[in-house]
Design goal:
This protein has 4 helices and 2 strands; from the N terminus they run αααββα. By secondary structure, the protein is an all-alpha fold. It has 2 domains: 79 residues; 76 residues, no CATH class.
Length: 158
């Protein structure tokens, strides 16, 4: 049987979509690699007697971080797919952290908004907000799980 024009178009579209996904993954991997390297460079500033000491430490740190990401990527993906509210919470955390970084940059550069200099925001506020949000979400997940179990038990009794 000869495939129709529609089937060819669908195959071409799937290949294009798959190709785009691969390109996006490679780009994101590259960006995260640069981020990891910059973090390693910043953390090893002034470490060791020779510059090669810091280089060895940076290479080890990047390799360990890549291994950790590879080990935990699938379990985290499964967890997030099972709990979509965690995706929204993670997005909120990214926005919150971005705001804190902007505020900290404004404070360090003595930026003034409406005639007022931007003050320092203690990081404890950020940590508390994240911890409290996670606690509420985990309690909510636990409540939903118990509710599902109760519903299953009540259905079995009927």
């Amino acid at each position: 049987e000869i495939p129709s024009h529609d089937e060819d178009a669908i195959r071409a579209k799937n290949l294009t979509t798959f190709g785009k996904a691969i390109v996006q993954i490679v780009i994101i991997d590259f960006i995260f690699s640069i981020d990891s390297i910059l973090t390693a460079v910043g953390m090893t500033n002034g470490v060791g007697e020779k510059p090669s000491d810091a280089l060895v430490l940076m290479v080890i740190a990047v390799v360990i971080s890549i291994i950790i990401m590879m080990v935990f990527a699938n379990p985290i993906r499964k967890f997030i797919n099972q709990h979509p509210s965690m995706q929204i919470l993670a997005l909120a955390f990214l926005i919150l952290i971005g705001f804190m970084l902007i505020a900290e940059a404004g404070h360090l550069s003595h930026t003034k908004i409406f005639g007022q200099e931007i003050g320092a925001i203690p990081k404890g506020y950020l940590y508390f907000a994240i911890a409290f949000s996670l606690l509420v979400e985990f309690l909510n997940m636990r409540y939903k799980k118990k509710e599902v179990l109760l519903n299953q038990n009540s259905e079995e009794e009927l």
